[in-house]
Write a structure and sequence with these properties.
Elements (H helix, E strand, L loop, with lengths): L2 H10 L19 E4 L14 E4 L1 H6 L1
Antiparallel strand pairs: 1-2
Length: 61
């Protein structure tokens, strides 16, 4: 995915993990853009299939 899409997802989420709602400033590690439905399972790289995720939430999902 391109950097513009990553930035769009970060802004849409307003700097919060979209799973656990933790703000980036309160997290110990950097949030990243995550596929909601994995590409290997047919998910795409469009913004509707992407979420800003904290590392703990991403690994728990």
């Amino acid at each position: 995915m391109d950097s513009a899409t990553r930035e769009f997802v970060r802004r849409r989420a307003d700097g919060r993990c979209e799973y656990g709602f933790i703000r980036q400033g309160h997290a110990e590690t950097l949030h990243h853009v995550d596929h909601i439905r994995a590409r290997r399972h047919g998910g795409g790289d469009g913004p509707s299939n992407l979420a800003l995720a904290g590392v703990g939430c991403d690994y728990a999902a």
